[in-house]
């Protein structure tokens, strides 16, 4: 079993996705993903751009974001979005543990022949608050939140005079070095 399959199965179990849903979406999700690519996030989602007319699935790997949709009428799965992570611009997300879920917004440059970039809006529902914070942490890791670290620096005491910086669509507060 390749790395993609192992991490995809682990992510789907964490999200509570059914085997039937996976069997319909995975062939299309796998199409442009390398076998050595690691799945960071796999979850059901709802889109505001007319994507709510069926079951959607969002997959985030180290290199790509892929969204598929299954139509309600004919149960056909189609590709909505397949773009490299580095092409994502104006990224914003908002974790809401009371919802519970995460709102994700970003812009992807237009395809050849398009006149403007396309803005994507997704709601990633979660079953409980812990899942919300897990999705938030995965998005922070995938999009490299500036200055975020898992552990404090060795040999230095924490300093508390914080200064704000602006990131790629999100705000982060850093302590001075």
Q: What is the CATH-assigned architecture?
A: Roll
List SSEs in N-to-C order: HHEEEEEEEHEE
Instruction: Look at the helices and sheets and give the structural class.
Output: alpha+beta
State mean pLDDT (0 to 100 scale). 78
Largest sheet: 7 strands, antiparallel
Which fold does the CATH topology refer to?
A: PH-domain like
Instruction: Count structural domains.
Output: 1
How large is the share of residues in beta strands?
A: 35-45%
Q: Please name the fourth-level CATH homologous superfamily.
A: Pleckstrin-homology domain (PH domain)/Phosphotyrosine-binding domain (PTB)
> What's the arrangement of strands in the largest beta sheet?
4-3-2-1-7-6-5
| Quantity of strands, as a count | 9
For the CA atoms, what is the radius of gyration? 18 Å
- Broad shape: globular
Poorly predicted regions are: 146-177
* CATH class categorisation: Mainly Beta
**Discrete helix count:** 3
Q: Helix amount, in percent?
A: 10-25%
Name the quaternary structure. Answer: single chain
Task: Chart the SSEs and their pairings.
Layout: H1 3-15, H2 19-30, E1 39-47, E2 54-61, E3 64-71, E4 77-84, E5 89-96, E6 101-108, E7 118-125, H3 129-142, E8 163-166, E9 171-174
Antiparallel strand pairs: 1-2, 1-7, 2-3, 3-4, 5-6, 6-7, 8-9
Overview of the structural elements:
With 177 residues, the chain is an alpha+beta fold. It has a single domain (3-147, 160-174), classed as PH-domain like (Roll). It is 22% helix and 37% strand. The protein contains three helices and nine strands; from the N terminus they run ααβββββββαββ. The strands form two sheets. A seven-stranded antiparallel β-sheet has the order 4-3-2-1-7-6-5. A two-stranded antiparallel sheet has the order 8-9.
């Amino acid at each position: 079993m390749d790395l993609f399959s192992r991490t995809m199965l682990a992510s789907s179990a964490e999200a509570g996705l059914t085997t039937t849903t996976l069997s319909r979406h995975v062939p299309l999700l796998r199409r442009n993903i390398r076998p050595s690519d690691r799945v960071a996030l796999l979850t059901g989602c709802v889109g505001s751009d007319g994507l709510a007319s069926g079951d959607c699935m969002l997959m985030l790997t180290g290199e790509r974001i892929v969204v598929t949709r299954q139509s309600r009428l004919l149960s056909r799965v189609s590709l909505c979005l397949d773009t490299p992570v580095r092409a994502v611009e104006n990224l914003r997300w908002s974790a809401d543990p009371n919802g519970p879920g995460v709102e994700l917004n970003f812009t992807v440059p237009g395809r050849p022949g398009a006149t403007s970039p396309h803005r994507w809006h997704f709601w990633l529902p979660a079953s409980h608050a812990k899942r919300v914070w897990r999705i938030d942490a995965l998005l922070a890791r995938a999009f490299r939140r500036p200055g975020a670290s898992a552990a404090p620096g060795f040999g230095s005491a924490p300093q508390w005079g914080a200064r704000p910086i602006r990131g790629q669509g999100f705000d982060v507060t850093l302590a001075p070095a």
